[in-house]
């Protein structure tokens, strides 16, 4: 469960403690998140203003929402005097990629439990980069991975700090809520927020952090009605009013990491017209869903939307052929 103190006070206390870790400051992680207008003809045509949270530009490796879900977990690991971090993910996991970099900065060991026994570090760029940062791997069957997802503490040992897949625990939710406090804007001006949903950790945290009048739209990257039940249960545990959030389970386009030509064409077209790179697993589907919400007038004319870019662009390399942001459009 989250701490009982008021959210703002709790976050301020954690941030003050975080500032005492100079090695993290040395990574260049900013305290403020840039928010910028996102001009796009379709938004203009429907009279909707969309602003973009550039969490994707936070850090070259620790991008998007990954830092926020991990930072308070790292503090807790330090408090407990742990000498090793262990977490879970797929072969292209943005979460494990970021964790390896942070563990190296803290000079603490890291273990990644990876779904699928067939993978090879030497042939996978993400795994290779994480290994060069010092992370070691344990490859497990998909069945075993599901078991560990339900009971990660089956891998507990003395001095080891466990972080669930995607950083999805109370400290991860609290860290995600802190994203709102880092925004360089007045969030009360927005009618809606929008974000991709994986484990639901970032989604729940943002819902806690945003003003109650801002309706938060989540776009599930995973297939199945169970996602609606899982997110509803999470929101109920956090005492979040049902009217303040809406989860789409219809925009996954076939399931987790499933892509089609129209999605890839949209990502290319959007990048060419806006200069913003998206990826097909999370942010590309979330942006398409936002457009659908606008066209259906679920988000009516006159609305102002805050779209959170949750990063994950390193995962573009996991597609065949590898997808890359347009090199002709510089990062801002």
Automatic annotation (TrEMBL):
Q: Which residues form a coiled coil?
A: none
- The Tryptophan synthase beta chain-like PALP domain is annotated at 46-311
Sorted UniProt keywords: Pyridoxal phosphate
Q: Which residues carry this modification: N6-(pyridoxal phosphate)lysine?
A: 66
**The organism sits in which domain of life?**
Bacteria
Give any Pfam family that matches.
Answer: PALP
List of catalytic residues: 93
Q: What is this protein called?
A: Tryptophan synthase beta chain-like PALP domain-containing protein
